[in-house]
Amino acid sequence: MSVAFTPWPAEVAARYRAKGYWTGDPLTDVVERHQGAAAEATAILCGERRFRYADVQRLSDRLAAAFQARGLLPGDTALVQLPNRAEFHILFFALLKCGVVPVNALNNHGAFELSAYARQIEPRLVVLARSHPLVAIDPAGSLPGSLTATLAGMVGPDRLLLLGDPVEDVVGAFAWADGQALSAAPDARPDHSVDASGVAFFQLSGGSTGTPKLIPRTHDDYLYSVRRSVEVCGLDAGCRFLCALPAPHNFTLSSPGALGVFHAGGTVVMAGDPGPATCFPLIARHRVTWAALVPPMLSVWLDAAPGTTADLSSLEVVQVGGAKLSPAVAERVPERLGCRLQQVFGMAEGLVNYTRLDDDPWTVVNTQGRPMSPDDEVRILDPAGRPVPQGAVGELWARGPYTFRGYYKADQHNARVFDAEGFYCSGDLVSMTADGNLIVCGRNKDQINRGGEKIDAQEVEDVLAAHPAVGHAAIVAMPDPLMGERSCAFVIAAPDTRPSELRRFLRGQGLADFKLPDRFVFVADLPKTAVGKIDKQTLRERAKSVPSQHAHTGTAQTEATAP
Ligand code: OOB
């Protein structure tokens, strides 16, 4: 059995094979290719534990054999939620080796997300960490309490695997919830050959439809995206990569991420969280050379860097992606962190764009890079589906050797987001520079319609972020009886910052009046999604209770100065 997915048309697949993009190798090749002396090199550092390539290979073989001994078959699915620990990668390779197709949930997903994924894939295996807050083992010691209702009936305790405390022998850290040990001899190996054209695992869609969508990724397409990322980023065995964002995220996993570092023979340093208190000492101790961050965390690093005693001099490149990086913040990277910046604009659905390390400073600071593959096809279209003139903003459509052809079991949605030629609509509003770099200007779902006038939230945020008193700003629609919608800015700002000053500044930058936020709400923090992006949906909910101009009667607390 294999997991169903929308394939590339046969002639397209043949072309990708002929060009050497799809090699027929399994995704586990990123580790398997390191034989001989290279097998002694350090693949993963996790706390005090060190795993050589030989260890990762042997431990994932043993786990895979144990899964087969439990009766798991190729084409079975698994729901996995693990923290940023070496076990995440080792278990991932084990599942790939026996053809079990996982959804790797983010560690900060709750029972809601896990149930939604479980309903879609009907897992035959669930893997959770005992340390996770959701996993309070019930007195009977069977299923984790808060997940019982969801998962009971889907998997029994004989198919629930729990990760315990860290141990050298990773296999020993896992135990079945039915109390049985994992049966795997030290030299056990899985008995299965992988069809590289089939689904390796599911990536998670950022989503905008309410139901989290799953993205089938094949061995062929994903391995190509990893190999090409390694080429574009120039990774080699000397790379020491800090895995600080959630390990399953497409950025952290494959752009070039941990899989790219493995492919290059480098070392992945696991960090439990991306904050400077955790990461700066790890950078100093392990001489980390590469790190991947989302923009809000980059800002935290930039603020913390001048005051740290940790030696950050080994850092060569900090990659930033997942959300729009404001040029004003980007400019500070070389001076504050003493390293280069690479912008990464990617999506779990496929297409990944990089600024190149030898790009000119303007490009690195102001653009989100260009597609990594010569066979990435990108269209920037107006609402009528016509290509926009060069430099103008339009909706980004993409297809190519590692961009998927359909969400899992989502025919209706697929019909909306794919065109007849197989191009996928990302929902991003982008423009292209004369030399082919993309600039993300917003998202069509992230727009404010102010009485017919459209406000690109990102555009206003970027300008606002250039004000010296502003740390971060997020602008969302708030309902208004007259205009339909008005704009509301949630702002992290220096104490005593006045709305009038911010308005004056925005006007001074030449911004159209209708784009000036109708309301300012000063906040200490902005809510974040599971991967650390600003959570606009939560802000939209909050904005509903912010009085609009017309409903407003007394002194608006929201218009007070920043506390
Ligand atoms: C990455 O993947 P996802 O699937 O979590 O989110 C994709 C969406 C994009 O469509 C875009 O709206 C936004 O996140 N995005 C960016 C961005 N990178 C992603 N928007 C502006 N600037 C950027 N640099 O987020 C992802 C996947 C692979 C590599 C990097 C990021």
Structural class: alpha/beta
Can you count the beta strands? 25
User: Ligands in the structure?
Assistant: 5'-O-[(R)-(benzoyloxy)(hydroxy)phosphoryl]adenosine
| Shape field | globular
> Widest sheet: strand order?
2-1-11-10-12-13-14-15-16
What's the pLDDT, averaged over the residues?
90
Per DSSP, the total helix count is 19
What are the segments in which pLDDT stays under 50 over at least 5 consecutive residues?
A: 550-557
Top-tier CATH class of one domain: Alpha Beta
Largest sheet: 9 strands, mixed
Rg from alpha-carbon coordinates:
24 Å
Residue share in helices?
Answer: 25-40%
CATH architecture level-2 label of one domain = 3-Layer(aba) Sandwich
The CATH topology of one domain is given as Rossmann fold
Beta content comes to: 15-25%
Q: Termini distance?
A: 60 Å
Secondary-structure blueprint of this entry?
Elements: H1 10-18, H2 29-32, E1 42-46, E2 49-52, H3 53-69, E3 77-81, H4 86-97, E4 101-105, H5 111-121, E5 125-129, H6 148-151, E6 160-163, H7 170-173, E7 174-176, E8 199-204, E9 214-218, H8 219-233, E10 240-243, H9 250-254, H10 257-264, E11 267-270, H11 276-286, E12 290-293, H12 295-304, E13 317-321, H13 327-330, H14 333-337, E14 340-347, E15 350-354, H15 361-366, E16 370-371, E17 377-381, E18 394-399, H16 411-417, E19 424-432, E20 438-443, E21 447-450, E22 453-456, H17 457-465, E23 470-480, E24 484-493, H18 499-508, E25 519-522, H19 536-543
Parallel strand pairs: 1-11, 3-4, 3-5, 5-6, 10-11, 10-12, 12-13, 13-14, 24-25
Antiparallel strand pairs: 1-2, 6-7, 8-9, 14-15, 15-16, 17-18, 18-19, 19-20, 21-22, 23-24
Helix pairs in contact: 3-4, 8-10
